[in-house]
Every structure is written in structure tokens, then in C-alpha cells.
Amino acid sequence: MLLQQCTILIYGAGHKGHDISLLDPILFLEPTFVVGIGASGGFDADGRPATYRRSLELISSGKIEALPFLTHRYGALEQIRKAFEEDFTREDYIKGVLSLK
What we know:
101 residues; alpha/beta; two-stranded parallel sheet; globular
């Protein structure tokens, strides 16, 4: 995967015990980082973070494939506690999603 002079969206925060130095191997390639935390990217007129809206548009259009990063799925609100307290520390955890039908 070639990352030189690309834009990388960091959508979420890191895991306990890791810091931003994990990105050191790719920083010399000079990517542009867009972070969906806080006010990065500004806000839309409705007050929603513009980075989130743009991210969802890219995923919905198929320009970004998100499914390979969804490692854990939750089908009920009762499962969310486990996600935040246990699953996020698992070595195989990348991102979890709650899907209510």
C-alpha cells in the first residue's frame, strides 16, 4: 500500500497502551491526516462534524471500503458494555459496530 502524499482519515481514538508514535513509520511519507475527533474539519450548518459527514459519504459511495475494519458486531444495546469494557482490548479488535434491526 503506497501512502506517500495521501490523505489518511483517523476515525476514532487509539487503544490503551498505545500512543501516536505508532504512526512514526509512515510519517516520513508526508501524508495528510484528518482526525474525526474534536473540531478537526469544522462543522456543517446543522452542527454535525464535517469530517464525520464526509467520511460517511466516502464509505456510502464505495470509495472507502470499511467492512474489512469491522471486526466486531453487536446486535443489541445490552452488548455495548462488553464492547467498551472488554472487546476493545482484544488483539483482533479494530472497530465494532452496533446494528439494530
